[in-house]
Each structure stands twice: as C-alpha cells, then as structure tokens.
Specification:
binds zinc ion; single chain; alpha/beta; 34% helix; elongated; 414 residues; Aminopeptidase; four-stranded antiparallel beta sheet; Alpha-Beta Plaits
Length: 414
C-alpha cells in the first residue's frame, strides 16, 4: 500500500518556534533528571503507587492546569487536562508509572533499597511527561486544542491501561488521538536520544496460557498403575513446538513459549497433575484465534491419548499494538523539523514484546514511539535486568518529541 504523506513545512516564524522548543526542552533536562532520580529511589508496583502519584500531583499542581484528577483507575492513576488558547482537537499523552519486583544492583547513589526497581524506565517516562507538561503549560497561547496527560499504573501487570480507560481517561473531552513513548534499549540500531517510529504493527498481542495435565498419582516403581502427568507434559510441550513451525504461515509472525513447568514433589512419586504456563505473541486476530484453538486441541488431545485429562485457560490478553500511519509519519515530519533529520529513525521490523498502550489504540487512533536512552558502553543492560539504567542526558529529546507533537500535530500540511 502506498501512503501519500505531505511533508510538514515550517514558515520562518515556525522555525524560530522550533528552535525555541528545542532549547526549552534542553533546559528542562535537569528538571526531568531530578524527577527521574526521585522516582527511581521509590519504586512501586502494579496499582499500588501512592508515592509516585504524590510526585506527579505535586508537580502538576504547580502548572495551573484546567483539570487534575488523582486516585483514578484502581487507586493511584492520574490525569490532567490543559486547554490551549486556540481551538482544536484533543490529544492524549501517556506515561506508565510502575516498577518491577527486581532487587536493584546498579550501585547508583539514588538506587532503590526496597527490593523493587524501575528496571524498565517508567520512572523516565513519568519524568519526561511531567517536563513536557511544564513546557506545554508555558506555551498555552500557541497551543491549539486540548492536551490530556495520562499517568497510568500497572503496565507491567497489563491491566493498567484498561483501568484508566474504564475510569474515563479518554473522555470529557473525548480524546481524538493518543501518543506514548518507551525509553531504554529496546530497539537495536537507534542512537542515544533518537526516536524510533514505525507505521502499522509495532508490538505483538500477548496471551498468557495456563495449561493443566491431570493423571493419576502413585508409586514411581509401579508406573503401570498410574497415569503420569509429567510424561504427558513432555509430550504436550514437544507437540506444541510444531504449532508455529508446521501450522502457521512462515509469513505470519508468531511465538509460543512455555516459561514455567510445575509438577511433582519427589523423585519416587508420580504426581497427580502438572501445570504449564506460557505466552503467545501474534500480530493478527486470525493467527491468535487459530493458535488458541490449536493449542487447546493439542493439550486436550495429547492428554486424552495418554489416558489423562488436559485443560487450557487463556488469561491476561493484550491486543497487538498497531500504530496509525498518518500519526506515525506526522511525528517523523515534526521531529525532522524540530530536532533535525538525525533525531528520528524508522524501525524496519516490529517487536514481539507486548505493551498495554495497545488498549488505548483499540479506542482511538494513536502511535507509540521508542526513545533510545542507551550509553554505548557497559552500562547498557537489558530491560528488567537488575543493572538496567537510563542515559539521563538525552531525556530532553523525549520531552521535545511529546511537546512538539502536541504543538504541531494539527497544523495543516502545505
Ligand atoms: Zn517492562
Ligand atoms: Zn516498560
């Protein structure tokens, strides 16, 4: 499909504004860094985020916004609304707030000591969005339309976005488009400070699979008097390896991984049951439905053929993250204009990672972007690692991306 995209052109007045915007975002780097460190020292999990909520509310209260709502979602979500002086549409900017149950080993002076850690960079997301809110609150006279700032709990545990949508984060006024950013080292090939963009499928649908195999326990010395669920599990796992390799199209990406197997208590006891838990990653609804059906049939069929009983439950599903093409190209053009062509890079392939930002995209068009905050040395660690860190010197480019998009996304292409 060919998509015609008009380039955003700047007038000389626009160019001045862009230069200022870049400088304003750079000037906010220290502010974003201080906030990130404060949040990093006090990581909180899931929906239980009172300290994080407190920092967000404290900072937003300084900005004289038109609306500020805390205690949202399942207790600690926040949203705020800024109305520009010029008429226009409603744009939501979203940051996730939660940390992980990882014991921090960075050795940083502001490292967390409570057994939890911001090991996915959500502390930086909150800091960048608060800095963008500060920049935009100061640019109200130039702002067309309304900006809704959404601070969302429980991304890692995947129901945070839904809890905010159900609480009304996309309503009053009705949100027309939504933008989100993920910082860190997720995408190879990006340079520190660069924004990675991609039109269409960007992240996979995730489905958590819980399977149980039931047999008949007994003595390990007399297997013929039992029905062994562990042997059944071994057969089921081998069979499941053929789903993606033999049953789905090689042109349709899919992953089936079982990361946990649990059964049995002692070497000479045949167990009554064995449980498997895994994750499926897909990009199309058809492939997801097909794999769910075939996985269930495999577990039930293999178990039955071995005189046992197999059941499958699907829990914790998030949809695939599909970026709106027009908004993705719009970000490319705006950032090219504001920060220069080197500031953006198109991503060639989607990721099989999941992200509950996809839930918002089921309701309104939007786009998700990667913000590269690597160092280029041994400090670069994978997300969710106990030594994960964020290069704070480039926080300002994320601030600039969010603020520039909010200021320019509705301008008519020339
Ligand atoms: Zn994460
Ligand atoms: Zn994350």
């Amino acid at each position: 499909m060919y998509i015609r995209v008009m380039r955003y052109k700047t007038s000389s007045k626009g160019r001045n504004r862009n230069m200022n915007l870049k400088k304003e975002a750079q000037a906010l780097n220290d502010y974003a860094q201080a906030l990130r460190r404060e949040l990093h020292s006090h990581p909180e999990l899931d929906h239980d985020l009172p300290l994080t909520e407190g920092v967000i509310v404290r900072e937003l209260e300084k900005l004289g916004l038109d609306e500020l709502k805390s205690g949202q979602g399942k207790g600690h979500g926040v949203w705020a609304t800024l109305r520009g002086d010029r008429p226009g549409k409603v744009l939501a900017l979203r940051a996730d707030m939660d940390a992980l149950p990882v014991r921090e080993e960075t050795g940083l002076p502001y490292a967390a000591t409570n057994g939890c850690m911001h090991a996915c960079g959500h502390d930086a997301h909150v800091a960048m969005l608060l800095a963008a809110a500060r920049l935009l609150a100061g640019a109200r006279a130039e702002l067309a339309g309304t900006v809704r700032f959404i601070f969302q709990p429980a991304e890692e545990t995947t129901d945070g976005a839904l809890s905010m949508i159900q609480a009304g984060a996309l309503e009053n006024p009705s949100v027309d488009a939504i933008i989100g950013i993920h910082t860190g080292s997720i995408w190879d090939g990006l340079r520190p400070g660069q924004i990675g963009w991609k039109s269409g499928p960007m992240m996979a649908a995730t489905t958590t699979v819980l399977a149980e195999l039931r047999g008949k326990g007994g003595h390990g010395a007399t297997p013929h008097l039992t029905v062994d669920p562990i042997v059944m599990a071994a057969e089921v796992l081998s069979q499941l390896q053929t789903l993606v390799s033999r049953e789905t199209s090689p042109f349709e990406p899919a992953v089936v991984t079982f990361g946990k197997i649990e059964g049995g208590r002692q070497h000479n006891i045949i167990a009554d049951s064995c449980r498997l838990s895994g994750t499926m990653r897909t990009f199309s609804h058809e492939t997801n439905s097909f794999l769910q059906e075939r996985l269930r049939a495999t577990v039930e069929g293999v178990a039955a053929s071995m005189r046992g009983h197999g059941t499958v439950e699907y829990v914790g599903q998030t949809p695939a993250l599909l970026n709106d093409p027009a908004l993705s190209f719009r970000m490319r053009d705006i950032l090219t204009s504001v920060l220069g062509p080197d500031s953006v890079q198109e991503l060639s392939l989607p990721s099989t990672g999941g992200e509950d930002f996809a839930e918002y995209l089921q309701k309104v068009p939007g786009a998700f972007f990667y913000h590269c905050s690597t160092f280029g040395d041994e400090r670069d660690q994978p997300h969710h690692n106990s030594r994960f860190d964020v290069n704070e010197s480039v926080l300002w480019t994320g601030v600039a991306a969010l603020a520039a998009f909010a200021l320019h996304w509705q301008e008519v292409s020339q």
